[in-house]
Amino acid sequence: MVPLFFQVLKPRLWTCPESSISLIHRPLPAKRAPPPPPALGPRAVCGACFCAAFEAEVLHTVVAGRLLPPGAVVAVGASGGKDSTVLAHVLQVLAPRLGISLRLVAVDEGIGGYRDAALAAVRRQAARWELPLTVVAYADLFGGWTMDAVARSTAGSGRSRACCTFCGVLRRRALEEGARLVGATHIVTGHNADDMAETVLMNFLRGDAARLARGGGLGSPGEGGALPRCRPLQLASQKEVVLYAHFRRLDYFSEECVYAPEAFRGHARHLLKLLEAARPSAVLDLVHSAERLALAPAARPPAPGACALLDGLNRGRPRLAIGKGRRGLDEAGPPRDGEPERAPAPEAVPAF
Amino acid sequence: MCQVGEDYAEPASEEPPPRQPGREQKCVKCKEGLPVVVIRAGDAFCRDCFKAFYIHKFRAVLGKNRLIFPGEKVLLAWSGGPSSSSMVWQVLEGLSRESAKRLRFVPGIVCIDEGAACGLSPEARAKTLAEMKLILQTVGFPWHVVALEEVFDLPPSVLRCFAQEPVETEGAYKAAVDSFLQQQHVLGAEGAGDSPSLAQGEEQLSWPCTQDPQNPQSPDRPPTAAQTEALSRLFDSVKTLTAKEELLQALRTHLILHVARTHGYSKVMTGDSCTRLAIKLMTSLALGRGAFLAWDTGFSDERHGDVVVVRPMREHTLKEVAFYNHLFAVPSVFTPALDTKAPEKASIHRLMEAFMLRLQDQFPSTVSTVYRTSEKLVKAPRHGCAASPPGPRCLLCMCALDIDTAGAALLSQGGPPSLRHRAAVLRLPREHEGLALRGPPATLHLGRGPAPQPELLPQGLHRAADPGVPG
């Protein structure tokens, strides 16, 4: 396990190995636990050096992967949460060196009691950093469909509401629209290593071959005319992001979405926390695995896009597009291929 | 569960909650018998239909893949546990059927005694061994019991990957089967009682029923105390249970393959069930083995070259195996493993097993979903072809290394993250020294592992003079 960040002993002089700044460490009061140690390996550094190391790592990620060329206009997907706040802050610090300019794009999914407060945080941030902010709302883009309306429409059939499926697809489309509105050339989102690890676990448990085949790299170049997207924080663990926000005293919104408790991702997240406790490198190992998955080309049907989802919603049959293929959209008959697990029809056992 | 592919087309056709088999319910297959077991989510089978279903699945998996040629020598890896015992039993039954549908390969059994790694006392090991020998004698195949200590005597050649034979085409398989059938017919007509020889003509094989099952093929010498001590020391030096399990699997595989090679077996069958393979897939993901999932969990595993590992039980869930063994009295031996009685958080393997089984309770299609996804994995980037890529291979698992030095993905630089020292993260290649950020300038070095190749850096940041090895 990683070493303790603070030695909780009597006050002593301690020197940061990087900056040679001497600090006097006072023991923390017994009630307050020390903040979680960063996953930076066997070195303990002081706060300032940690932040500098974090920024340098993000810079290296962007530069070595050639994610954001100089002169790019970068739309930052800002939700008001810790990841996008940290992302926007770091990119702002690095912007002069990378030669990019930033625009904030916030998406209003229309989730009452959650998104309004988050958007207030985004507005405060935009004011403080003096970055232009554009807010795009589902209600405007998708013909009045807010997430609350989608949830109402998919509820009540005894199965899960699948809110995250809709929200994820629609949000990416909304981000795309917002980015085009501000004339951006690239989109960045604040996904961290924990997010990517949870995603690969979740997609395996759900059997989502399409998304497994697509995900994994540092970002997509932008298929079919979409803007290229990347995730500069992909190699930073969640602990590092939280600590960075703590040390830089960033103001963010930290409540979870109203629909989060019913999401399947919760299982994957719980599993990931257990795995990380048993073996801290599990998070990055999962990201490594995800990059190297090899799926058969035939097993990669394109995942349904926003148009298909909206079509289903508008027809009053919201689950059409997230079923098997898009048969229902063509009003075809009963499903042709049944469950693969049914008892096989008696057939001549081939001689071997 | 928000499972991809669940059919939501008609809300009205939502399936009713699984009915408990009541007195009125009949077997779903024959519609007559009284059901004894419920498979999947509500399919109740009677005893005979269940047996037919189970056996058919086993034969279908073997037949579908057409990898096992008639007359081939196949080594069955038996651990004593329920899945491998069931597999051995299926092979036994399959060999004794009427000639048209009889299984046509020549089996042997290998059993690895892992007591030393698990910390068992010699008396416990002897007791288990005695129970196993009893069952082995009943089964009647040629058997080999090997202690894990013999791994110290393995020659270094096991770490070399032998050249693979070219992949047999469909035509070759059919031709082989036809010629074998003809030959059997001819022999039957001539009334020959001696062991048949193959049209392939390589070896003279002896049919198991003529062999004395009392006489094992390998000399039955118990391992010396020094070897046992050395093995215990080896396993004690490994700190985490996860790593111990991985080490044990690697050693076990090498030992089984060595036994297969020395006795002329070209295939090894292991008894991994659907549930175990799903757990293994998720565990491998969490350990960073995403590139090798197809080999670790697919039907056939050809990475060792001359010997192919085959998993015929991969479509049977643990529940089906357990019920079959119970209903039809398949003998098995309980041997404590490394993680017996270990707490749930002791290793990645235990965690994943507990998680999958719990999730399976809640969403009964979890295991089958993971299995179906695993079927879609391919052995990329190159298929098993005759000229295997000359890239370096891992010593322990014999897979082509998944570290590429000039890859586009960032993680590839510096090797798998679990081996990468994060301290090296704090070292900057010389190219970036000029970009040192706020904070102390010259003393702070950040970056990762070996320096990125110069051509990967944008022109403006490239220092042409110095390729930049981190100091």
Topology:
The complex is a heterodimer of chains A (352) and B (471).
Chain A: E1 12-15, E2 22-25, H1 47-64, E3 73-77, H2 82-98, E4 101-108, H3 115-129, E5 133-137, H4 138-141, H5 147-154, H6 163-181, E6 186-188, H7 193-206, H8 209-214, E7 219-220, E8 229-230, H9 238-247, H10 265-278, H11 282-291, H12 306-314
Helix pairs in contact in A: 1-2, 2-9, 7-10, 7-11
Chain B: E1 35-39, E2 43-46, H1 47-65, E3 73-77, H2 82-95, E4 106-113, H3 115-118, H4 122-139, E5 143-147, H5 170-190, H6 225-236, H7 241-262, E6 267-270, H8 274-287, H9 293-297, E7 300-301, E8 308-310, H10 318-327, H11 348-362, H12 366-375
Parallel strand pairs in B: 3-4, 3-6, 4-5, 6-8
Antiparallel strand pairs in B: 1-2, 7-8
Helix pairs in contact in B: 2-10, 8-11, 8-12
How would you explain this protein's 3D organization?
The complex is a heterodimer of chains A (352) and B (471). By secondary structure, chain A is α/β, with parallel strands linked by helices. Chain A contains twelve helices and eight strands. A six-stranded mixed beta sheet of chain A has the order 5-4-3-6-8-7. Helices cover 35% and strands 8% of the residues of chain B. Chain B contains twelve helices and eight strands. Chain B has a six-stranded mixed beta sheet, sandwiched between helices. The interface between A and B is large, with 91 and 100 residues. Chain A: This is tRNA(Ile)-lysidine/2-thiocytidine synthase N-terminal domain-containing protein. Chain A: Residues 321-352 are annotated as: Disordered. Chain A: Residues 327-344 have a biased composition (Basic and acidic residues). Chain A: One of its GO terms (molecular function) is tRNA binding.
Rg estimate of chain B, integer Å: 26 Å
String of helices and strands of chain A: EEHEHEHEHHHEHHEEHHHH
What distance separates the N and C termini of chain B?
52 Å
Tell me the overall shape of chain A.
Answer: globular
Estimate the mean pLDDT confidence of chain A. 77
Span between termini of chain A: 52 Å
Low-confidence stretches of chain A: 1-9, 27-41, 325-352
Number of strands of chain B: 8
User: Uncertain segments of chain B of ≥5 residues (pLDDT<50)?
Assistant: 7-15, 192-219, 382-388, 405-471
Q: If interface size is counted as residues with C-beta under 8 Å from the partner's C-beta, which chains form the largest one?
A: A-B, 91 and 100 residues
Strand order of the largest sheet of chain A: 5-4-3-6-8-7
Structural class of chain A: alpha/beta
Query: Rounded to an integer, what's the Rg of chain A over CA atoms?
Result: 23 Å
Helical residue percent band of chain A: 40-55%
**Helices and strands of chain B: which structural class?**
alpha/beta
Strand order of the largest sheet of chain B: 5-4-3-6-8-7
Helix content of chain B: 25-40%
Largest sheet of chain B: 6 strands, mixed
Regarding quaternary structure, what we see is heterodimer
Strand content of chain B: 5-15%
Q: Would you tell me the overall average pLDDT of chain B?
A: 73
